[in-house]
Design goal:
heterodimer; A: 502 residues; alpha+beta; MutS, DNA mismatch repair protein, domain I; Dna Ligase, domain 1; B: 259 residues; alpha/beta; Rossmann fold; two-stranded antiparallel ribbon; ImuA (chain B); Protein ImuA (chain B); P-loop_NTPase (chain B)
């Protein structure tokens, strides 16, 4: 509902919406209410009610179409925005966010101040929200929805707070949530007092799991919107910034903070994500990748600076955060090794080439700089695997007894050929409209398909290529193949040019 | 204090020599190991810390297969000493084939650029990096400014550039691309040549041969040869089969036109 209001701001502010209002959805050809506002709820309307019934009860009801996907997108955008408070934000569809604030709250001088800041900022952006802080995600979920607003459960003390809350605060499935109140079990506290075995037998292990999760006796896995990285830096500004130079300076400041911490603990990272949190809630991010783990502020900023032009500061940027990923130990000495002194070893190669490879990958793109590595495959176009440019070269090599062309076309090009006998190499062939007379030829080298990669029923001995290495009279050397065999009743095999030899 | 003219003259000459040191001092060379080629090159071999232009012929300009192969063989000894990069726009370079030419294909860093300007910028960046000994680039056209920039990058760390001229597929066939400016240390025109079969009766393929023409070399003179890949021959593995200078050149013409 809040999302709908944000999308249609011209209608009216939240407080003074004159008539009852509801969002509609179509469920199995029945129009039902999807969400209702406070005015409609006061008239006894509830989500899930048939639209016709609601219309009869309350003729002045104003409705609009619900958009669940849009809501989810908005929630995810909100989760991205919340990264300024904690790097670990989980989306709890349809209407919640769970933030892991372990070890982060001290940045706000306490949990209460942090929660107040978060809710105040949400309210300023037109998002009415309630919040709670507890040891477990389950307890916080219940307190935020059914407890007093801005409850902060003391460490280990969620039990007395939860006891008074309705059963619905346990995130139960529909049947259990409908049955328990009918048996008089309306409060969580009543459930805790009952013998566990009977409860589990009657309502399923699910109820016990939810109860344990709320009380911290069972683990709960949350899917964080971004994988949490303990390597995290943040710089906030009193006044929003928007000039490009300032963005670069801010990146430098936040990088220095994080890199100093990394240097202290002897760590380096391969991936750095700079996120610029804008006043209006958007959070454009830019990424810097290193081919070798590093923590050199100057280098990071140099690589980042050209990318910052793509960041639209909008009305201004108030917070810059930096997270480091793929963190690995990095000894301090590594930075000072002199490549020139001890000849050209593997370490020296990495030291001198890493900045170049970083510059190239960050300018051209991730998959545009690589190194070739043999892959065990008979199929020529699959014999090469690409690896990061500075990865360690393995000892294996391509089979030297099988000559391969210097240029291999991604798609073989069709040619027309004239051969003396069906299984002979061609005498002449026409490629790209030009005839070539073959003076010498070698072959065939028969390469069959990788039959183990297909269902056994589709495997056929006809799926093979006979490769010929031919030289024309001008000295050009080509790699041709015939696809399939000459068999009566089958279509004529076709000829292709697959590559060019040196 | 008055200084005598000869002394001042000597001092000025030294000053000028120092100013020109960036471009004129003879750099190290990589000899082909055959006086017929080496005599045509200024320092007695392929000058390092420069860039060289390799051009194909006819339709070859679109595949640039012969220039690429010869450039790989020329750069081979350099690639063994340091890092090598190959910059291209069309990614049809096949590493197993490069290995077949004796090139350390696995250590080669391959870079795919989006256009000529980007490819040249990458070459320039790589040549100015310590530890990079050879940079091979496939580029359609290069103007004087870009050539000069490439030269300055080469001088920075002594890297050697090999610029393979390659026209993108499907571009105007009749278009004459401007011959690279005078910034290149040498320009080679390379066409395939019929190989010498080890066994004519069977019609087997011999080691690859090329018709290599040195069109321009700074401080040297032009020449033309038939070269063959021969592993037993020095670091370059390029052996002179025939000298096409003078009368031989005319004799070789019909062979090239055939087919």
């Amino acid at each position: 509902m809040a999302t709908w209001r944000r999308r249609n701001p011209c209608v009216a502010p939240v407080e003074v919406f004159p008539t009852p209002f509801a969002l509609l959805t179509t469920e199995r050809a029945v129009r039902r209410l999807y969400a209702v506002d406070a005015g409609a709820a006061a008239l006894g309307l509830y989500p899930g009610q048939k639209a016709t019934d609601a219309g009869a009860l309350c003729p002045e009801l104003v409705t609009a179409e619900a958009d669940p996907e849009g809501d989810l997108e908005a929630l995810q955008a909100l989760a991205d925005w919340c990264v300024r408070f904690s790097p670990a934000v989980a989306v709890d569809a349809p209407d919640g966010l769970i933030l892991d604030i372990t070890g982060v709250s001290h940045l706000w001088q306490g949990e209460a101040a942090m929660l107040d800041d978060l809710l105040a900022r949400l309210a300023a952006n037109g998002v009415p929200a309630r919040g709670a802080i507890a040891d477990t995600a389950g307890a916080a979920w219940a307190l935020a929805r059914y407890g007093p607003d801005r409850t902060i459960a003391p460490v280990g003390g969620q039990l007395p707070l939860l006891a008074g809350l309705p059963i619905a605060g346990l995130r139960l499935d529909e049947t259990a949530a409908a049955q328990l109140p009918r048996l008089g079990l309306t409060r969580i506290g009543r459930l805790i007092d009952l013998p566990r075995g009977q409860l589990a037998r009657r309502f399923g292990a699910h109820v016990m799991l939810r109860l344990d999760q709320a009380l911290g006796q069972a683990e709960e896995a949350l899917t964080y919107r971004r994988p949490p990285s303990p390597w995290w830096g943040r710089v906030a500004f009193a006044e929003p910034i928007s000039v490009l130079d300032d963005l670069v300076r801010a990146a430098q400041d936040v990088a220095e903070k994080l890199c100093a911490r990394m240097a202290l603990e002897g760590q380096g990272a391969r991936r750095f994500v700079f996120t610029y949190h804008r006043l209006d809630g958007a959070a454009p991010a830019q990424e810097v990748r290193l081919s070798l783990a590093g923590r050199d502020t100057k280098r990071l900023v140099k690589l980042l600076a050209p990318k910052l032009e793509a960041i639209d500061p909008g009305f201004g940027i108030e917070v810059v955060t930096l997270t480091a990923h793929e963190v690995e130990p990095l000894s301090g000495r590594q930075g000072q090794l002199e490549g020139a002194k001890n000849g050209y070893g593997a370490a020296a190669r990495e030291e001198t080439l890493a900045p170049l490879v970083d510059r190239l990958t960050n300018r051209l793109g991730e998959n545009r700089v690589w190194r070739a590595e043999p892959r065990a495959s008979h199929v020529p176009e699959q014999a090469v695997a690409t690896r990061p440019a500075l990865s360690v070269v393995s000892g294996t090599a391509w089979d030297p007894d099988r000559p391969r062309p210097l240029r291999l076309f991604r798609r073989p090009e069709p040619i027309t050929v004239i051969a003396k006998l069906p299984d002979d190499p061609p005498r002449t062939f026409t490629w790209r409209g030009r005839p070539h007379r073959v003076s010498r030829a070698e072959g065939p080298e028969r390469i069959a398909e990788e039959w183990w990669g297909r269902p056994i029923g589709e495997v056929t001995p006809m799926a093979l290529r006979d490769y010929y290495r031919v030289e024309d009279e001008a000295g050009g050397r080509y790699w041709l193949f015939r696809e399939g065999l000459y068999v009566d009743g089958e279509p004529m095999p076709r000829w292709w040019l697959h590559g060019l030899f040196a | 204090m008055p200084v005598s003219p000869p002394v001042r003259l000597a001092a000025m000459r030294a000053q000028i020599a120092a100013l020109e040191a960036g471009t004129r001092t003879p750099t190290s060379i990589l000899a082909f190991g055959d006086s017929r080629i080496d005599d045509c090159l200024a320092g007695g071999g392929l000058p390092l810390g420069r860039w060289h232009e390799l051009v194909g012929e006819g339709l070859e300009i679109e595949t640039a297969i012969a220039p690429a192969a010869v450039a790989a063989l020329m750069a081979r000894p350099l690639a063994a000493k340091g890092a090598a990069l190959w910059v291209f726009r069309r990614g049809d370079l096949h590493a197993p084939g490069l290995q077949g030419l004796g090139f350390a294909a696995q250590a080669l860093i391959q870079v795919q650029a989006r256009d000529d300007a980007e490819a040249l910028a990458v070459m320039e960046d790589a040549l100015g990096t310590q530890g990079v000994s050879a940079v091979l680039g496939e580029v359609d056209a290069i103007d004087l400014t870009a050539g000069r920039r490439l030269q300055l990058a080469c001088e920075k760390r002594g890297g050697t550039g090999f610029l393979i001229r390659r026209r993108p597929y499907g571009s105007m066939a009749g278009r004459t691309t401007q011959e690279g400016g005078s910034a290149a240390a040498s320009r080679w025109r390379i066409a395939p040549a019929p190989s010498r079969s080890p066994d004519e009766a069977l019609g087997l393929l011999g080691p690859p041969c090329w018709r290599v023409e040195l069109e321009r070399s700074r401080g040297g003179r032009p020449g033309a040869w038939i070269l063959e890949q021969d592993e037993s021959h020095g670091p370059h593995a390029l052996r002179v089969v025939a000298d096409l200078a003078g009368g031989d050149l005319a004799a070789a013409e019909p062979v090239r036109r055939a087919g």
